[in-house]
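# step 3/5: fold
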Amino acid sequence: MQERKAMLILHGKQATNDEVREAVGLLRERGWRLDVRLTWEAGDARRLVEEALAAGYPQVVAGGGDGTLRDVAEAMGLATTQASLALLPLGTANDFAKAAGVPLEPAAALALLELPARAIDLGRVGDQLFLNMATGGFGSQVTANTSEDLKKVLGAAAYLFTGLSRFSELQAASVALQGPGFEWQGELLALGIGNGRQAGGGHVLCPEARVDDGLLDVAILPAPQEMVGALRGLLAGEELFVRARLPWVQIKSTQGLDINLDGEPLQAESLRFEAVPGALRLHLPVDSPLLSRPG
């Protein structure tokens, strides 16, 4: 039986969250040693993961928004450790957690530590790893332009509000994509390269993505001539995307690419994305929609 010992790496803003404190207490009452460390500034998540692994913690918990979850998952993936990760989603969007079926209630999320961890993929671009999704075009512009104050008031709906209010400002990007048996070139409004399924507060870009299939799901929304018609079609649920499932994909743009990588901005004229199979052991519900082999 695996040792019931874990380190919770918690975003500093959640230090006074009473619901989290109560959930930690409940887990400790069930015989767990759960030590809590707080992040304060950039780089803390990686440092704390390194400390946890050096101290022999067999499990780590990432507590915070999508950015915190990504930072901790990346640090563990780079460490190529057999220690496992559990997610305590405490953000506004919680995109990966919602798609994976991870409970948003802290006590239920921490209870996943008692389920066996599953080997999952991570995405890689350059020397960075990501847990959920890289987005470009509409999704990345909306995420970048959604204010923190609006998110506090409207929650995840803030992303949709921002997208609709700025729709006339969105510009198409001219790109070329290439992968095994796949080529596409043209202007796009939105791009998703998903290990997970959704980004930007609930925008489902890659509805068939799996985290254990060794592939990234690519979703391209081509730019139509009539922008209002595109919006009408999206709201009506029409399938307007070009889709592919690939182990890697190369993206080029002479204008430069603006990519949002799990909340982190990334800019370049050429980027190669690839799946890293089995890069992380993650505690997920047995019936998680992101598992190709549930149970």
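# step 4/5: annotate
Residues 150-165 have pLDDT under 50 and may be disordered.
# step 5/5: archive (pending)
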